[in-house]
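From the methods appendix. Each design record in this collection lists the tokenized structure first, followed by the designed amino acid sequence. Records were kept in a plain field format so they could be parsed without special tools. The example shown here is representative of the layout used throughout.

RECORD:
FOLD TOKENS (174 positions):
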């Protein structure tokens, strides 16, 4: 089946991530041009991308925040944290990114409905892992997938990534 990689724009940005020396904004550009195929305005979603702070400035938000906006109530439902390629095999980078995502999700929890499950993803280069934070919990858990906890490659594992993104839409649009 054809998913996001069959579209020329996401494929273009995927190829940019794969280029030697690519920066984190290459990963941002991929998501910026892929997420709107799933989290659409006609389904009441808005996608916010954090502006890149100056180097050395503390980052206070996830790279992408997806809001479900219904009846004027804008709830943050999915956060995505990403890092540039080259660190995909470094466990310390994954741990740091997961800790960032966890902190962002806990912050969202204090800002809105505390009884809501929040969802997230961490992307390093072309690999993505999916997570969720249960109400009342302080640590995120791996989102159940075909191979729970796996870092899925955006092209090679496109069907699974597509499936999870569609599940996030179905779960958060209630």
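DESIGN:
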């Amino acid at each position: 089946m054809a998913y996001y990689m069959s579209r020329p724009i996401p494929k273009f940005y995927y190829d940019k991530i794969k280029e030697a020396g690519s920066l984190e904004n290459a990963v941002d550009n991929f998501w910026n041009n892929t997420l709107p195929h799933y989290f659409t305005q006609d389904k009441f979603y808005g996608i916010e991308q954090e502006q890149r702070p100056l180097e050395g400035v503390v980052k206070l938000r996830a790279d992408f925040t997806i809001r479900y906006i219904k009846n004027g109530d804008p709830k943050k439902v999915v956060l995505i944290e990403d890092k540039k390629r080259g660190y995909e095999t470094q466990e310390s980078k994954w741990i740091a990114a997961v800790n960032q995502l966890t902190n962002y999700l806990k912050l969202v929890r204090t800002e809105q409905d505390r009884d809501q499950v929040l969802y997230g993803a961490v992307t390093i280069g072309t690999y993505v892992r999916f997570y969720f934070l249960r109400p009342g919990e302080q640590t995120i858990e791996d989102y159940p997938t075909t191979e729970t906890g796996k870092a899925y490659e955006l092209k090679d594992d496109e069907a699974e990534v597509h499936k999870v993104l569609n599940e996030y839409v179905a779960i958060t649009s209630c």
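APPENDIX NOTE: The mean pLDDT is 88.
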